[in-house]
Amino acid sequence: MAVNPHVRDGGGFHEMRLDPSAPLAPNLEDSVLTLPSMVSAGECAHMISAADLWCASNPTCNAPNNHLNDYHRRHGLTRVECHTDGLNLDGRTHALARIILARTLWYLESLRPHDAYHIFKQRASLGDMIFTFSGHEPAINVYTAGGEFEPHEDKHMLTVLVSLSPLDAFEGGGTAFWSERAERVGGLGGEPSLMLRPEPGTAILWTGQITHAGLPVISGRRHVFVCSFNLRA
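The chain above was modelled as a monomer; its predicted structure follows.
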């Protein structure tokens, strides 16, 4: 992690507005942030390997009585829990989940302190706050052919998604976002306002009211680290 985030490799956050024609919505209410090179190539490769090993060796992955996994199996998606206190993967992978969240908060408070305050009501020492995670997250989502995640809102303070797979490892895929205006005019059946398919190691951040989806993978395997969470003092 860069000693000085203002001169880090890959630059700072890029804010991408979902509706550039509308007046600027403050506090990321209609925007997403991207941060290139937040996770190294070696770290991405390790998390991919750990998730694939779990999928290959876990006999309950596609168990018909496991409703959560059965739902995702029918949608070409396996969610591999990678909780910071978990035991189902190797120690380094669980440690990387904690490291990714620490980097996210440190870069946010260093480079976007106003956004940090709006989201968490605190500008500094975000890493000392207490996490409440969504469901079985943090997780590594593994998409195969036909795999997708339908449009939804996370309803948490912040979501961080990190693309792990090289772009030539899969066709299709990506993360789609809808602006508030797009939802009002065309609904979720309309074209997304923004589609991101970034280089591996790139982090994407957004707040809980933004509608988004995992677009269908045509072939290959797409891996992403994802975590939605709240923080409290």
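The radius of gyration is 17 Å.
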